Amino acid sequence: MRRRVIFGAWGxxxxxxxxxxxxxxxxxxxxxxxxxxxxxxxxxxxxxxPALFIHRRVxxxxxxxxxxxxxxxxxxxLERLIRRRAGVGRWGWTAHAALGFxxxxxxxxxxxxTAIFWGAxxxxxxxxxxxQFHFKRIVFEENPATPRAxxxxxxxxxxxxxxxxxxxxxGTNLWTAELHFPGSHAYDLLLIERQLRRANPQFVICYLNExxxxxxxxxETVPNFFGVRDLxxxxxxxxxxxxxxxxxxxxxxxxVLPLFRYREALSQRVLGAxxxxxKQSQYNTALAVDLEARALEAAGKSRLGGESEFQKAAxxxxxxxxxxxxxxxxxxxxxxxxILTRQLDPAVRVDMEAFLNQMMARYSNLVVVPxxxxxxxxxxxxxxxxxxxxxxxxxxxxxxxxFMKAQLNQAPVAPMNR
Length: 418
Fold this sequence. Notes:
The protein is mainly alpha-helical. Among the domains are: 2-111, no CATH class; 143-216 and 301-407, Rossmann fold (3-Layer(aba) Sandwich), CATH 3.40.50. It is 63% helix and 6% strand. It contains 21 helices and five strands. It has helices at 2-43, 50-86, 93-111, 115-122, 129-142, 155-160, 163-170, 186-195, 211-214, 221-225, 230-236, 245-256, 258-261, 263-271, 273-276, 278-286, 291-299, 306-324, 338-341, 346-362, 390-407, and strands at residues 148-152, 175-178, 203-208, 328-333, 366-369. The chain has a five-stranded parallel sheet with strand order 2-1-3-4-5. The radius of gyration is 24 Å and the shape is globular.
């Protein structure tokens, strides 16, 4: 009876694959004709071809089911092999547990490269940064549009630029995806750059200010994106002295055990957003209402020194990698709420602009748009010290759309030999 069930399941899976390969595209077109408009509204600018989206998600689902079947079949075979080699004792159950844990991490690691996995985690569970990032990254990789651009950096990039409005204004001339990660610094751009390689966008856009170089290195990017392959670069760039050791350890552990790296997203799916985001909620509640007091405190964390030099070196490496890949890097030399800007040491801004000018002289793929050329923003345009309100975001996005039209007329960046 058990064998019949197993063979029946494999048979149904095989039929599913045959249908997907032979008629999947046509069926996706038929489904998209009925639900495509609703899907596009739900997507909020993340993709523009509902039929392709449906077809790819079905393929991912079949792949994950197939991998689950393979893991289930491998588990008893490997367990018997281990028991035979190691002998059977009262600790024999450890082979069963260890294999189950290893195969689960294998499956989770593969699932992390599918949009259907991240979509299932996020559906109805609320916003989660890592889930949003990977979902949008994978969908962007599938998009056949060209040329393409990504918005990277910290939450200021997300607050300043509305990707949906940008795509509406540029039409088929340029497709843009927003791939920011909160709290990013210049070194974090290096970690994010690796996530861009499969999509290989022609433009990388970042709204940049002093916080990228002069506000330390603490953040959420390293625990979520640092991996074993970064260790060599870590020692070469002297990052060990500047990066948080706990964040690096969490990043390495998560690189080996995807279940650990995705723990918050999975917990949010199970426990709900309120339980997982309790720490952030407590932090938001504790923030001082007085923006002047908060600005004075924030300005005290912004300083020149060894960490700022480390961040500048990381930024140069980020630009160099993009140049080797043939990507144009567009830096919008942005601002903070004027309330915060008044409290910052002027030497910090002078140092940053001098550095950006040096970078633009060294790298032909780098475009730095000075703050004087950006739309001016007053204190009334801000919701806090760094994030503008929706009206200011719309104005800035409209300006960027016109700016990018001019960039599209420039000669493309030629990839350099690595």
